[in-house]
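Input (Putative diguanylate cyclase/phosphodiesterase):
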Amino acid sequence: MHIEPDAPQVSVAPQDRLGERLQAAERLIYSDAEQAKADLLEIQALAQAAGDLSSEAMAVMLQGNALFFQSRFQQADACSVRAIELAQVCGNQMIHVRALNVLGISAAMQGDYTSAMEYCLECLRIAEAIGDEGNQGRVLSNIGVLRMNIGEYEAALEAVTQAQQIAVRQENVVAYSASTINILVAHYYLKQYDRALALAAQHLTEVRKYNLRQNEVVMQAYVAHALFETGQFQQAADLATEVLPLAEEVGNQEHVVNLRSAYGRALHALDRHDEAAFQLETALGVARERELRALERNILGYLSELCASREDWRLAYAYSRQHQELQRVLHTQDSERRSRVLSVQMQVEMLKREAERERQRNAELSQANTALEQAQQHLAYRATHDALTGLHNRAHFQAEAERHLADLSGGELGMLFIDLDRFKQVNDTLGHDVGDELLDQVGQRLRNVVRTGDLVARLGGDEFTLLLPGLRDASDAERVARKVLASLAQPFQVGGHKLHITGSIGVAVAPQDGMDITTMQKHADVAMYRAKHDGKNAVRTYSAGMGDETAARMDLERDLREALRNGEFVLHYQGQFDVASGALSGYEALVRWQHPVHGMIAPGRFIPVAEDSGLIGPLGTWVLREACRQARAWRADERGLTMSVNVSPVQFDTADFARLVQEALEEAGIRPECLMLELTESTVLRDVASATQQLQRLRALGVRIALDDFGTGQSALSLLRHIPIDQLKIDRSFLPGPDDTDESAQVFLRLLVMLGQARRLNVVAEGVENAEHQALLREMGCPTAQGFYLSRPLPAHQATALLPQIAAPAARAAPELHMASD
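Output:
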């Protein structure tokens, strides 16, 4: 895309020698930015010597333009800030607007979309105030680019089309070219490739006529991609060959990278694999060096496809994983950017209204007696604020909530309840001083998230609340809640420790969720409890029925405590089989709850409740001991069988977990290598260093470790080199469904099997549900499998029937393995 920093509109009179040189240097930016920068430095020195502040400001501002075209954004920012200072001194608003414009586009390129949009809006405001239509068009063009960067291509097309119309009225060749290229790019991303190619063919003569080499490079890079998308591979390669020297000479590395990626794609399609690899790998290196994340993501995908064509599966997998990880990061960033861009205009207007209210309140207060006012303020502060964090306290929060609920004429009232997830672990492991400092820092971040006029309070412990008056609807409150989660996601530095903390947020909005403080607090609390139930680090807005769900969850927690006392839990065992021979190789122990009233309750319902309530400790210990006891009863270690036990993240994080495992082994009298502890990827990735230490303690006991659900999370290949494990369990989602014709899942499955074997790990495929699955795994060389087709989870007395398959393994067809579990 072509971001338009400026077009030739030098304010100095043409007859002035400095003005003429500034015009010439400005035109040169689009063909030779480095030479233009050198000329502008000389002009700046001449302007300083002559005491011409306006020319000096223009020279500094244009240096910022040249630096931007060279992707040297921080230096461009410094020049733009200095240009604004000079423009304010000499009263030149046009230079001020243009420098703000460079700051805006630079912020966008560096990923700060909030600042980018704010700069653009400020540019637009000043340009409209001084009647500068040229700068209005420039800002509209850049707003279109911002929209394009967050995927809003239709809105972007509308903005850049308006910019083009202004450029036509202004007879501004450079602005017209920039907006035309942005229209072309919008057509490309809307997959209107023929329209993009037609527009490029029309505009190429104009670009070359005025020697706009920067613009030509930008346009031709997208033309090469459009040619590729329309199957014109040779034409795409020829165009890239022709334009690449020009791109390197111009020096805008973003567009060099884009052109090389198109060249690499075309060479790949032409089966010129080595040349394609060179172009794509070169582009990847520059993209990473210049932090061009979106281009880096695309190139990783192209390289993965290229390596797959060359049957270099390991490298294809590596590029594919990097592509997926970066895609996830960019998707999250795009969502946040989209929210910020869409809300910034609203926030600006709301801040203006709040500032006016604040000014009026201050004017009224200034009329009171100063001494009495200070005394009252001091007493009020102590009565209304939390001593630890300086936030408002519970009493003040309730009073303010009641006041706002009494008059909702200004809009709806949002109430957010925020509870920090697993804060108790910080206090228990690092002490209350660290916990108190963490709470204070959380309070500071909450202050930074809200608007003027919003209220932030600490209710006690690790519970905070926000009061948001003047909302349009519940979505405004949810947007603030998501900003809170994003703020909390950044690490905290407390007492020499780097801490990661998340929050669960419940949202209630008046009048629909209540008109009194008691009801609103209850509903916000219920919604917060639902956020915790749904996995923490989440936002939930109250809805009818949540109260019943919360009550049911509390009943479940009460019954869970009774179940532990009454011995209502049982273990079922699912067999694991050698794929080649069909022989039994081990069992996985799966906990079941036989409720006296509700019957069998699935683990998915009660395990999260056990984790949140602290009951996972005693439950997990019971499962571990019972599984070891059953392994002894089956003489599993003598028969060479393993007993796999799932470990909860909460259970794994406890300091005495290794000791509990050792006690279970000693109590049952089985060899440690018989026990396989299964952990999910997410359990390890939360804190790899701490998890590795815990795994080393467990391995020192002699037990084995399995990484469960491998391939579904965001783990990197390097993780397998650094953590001590014995087994990979491939998630069932990678096995094809009955109507699944997509072969990519099978390719990925094969890569996972090969990866495990290369690391000398036992690979277990889960979810085998038919003979086709078993045949596919046998063909891939996967050593071990489990699933309903082989054996359902069975009570111990039924699972015993599988033991003879150790001595006499048979081809997989035995109907007795399809026994019902109940």
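The first helix runs from residue 17 to 28.
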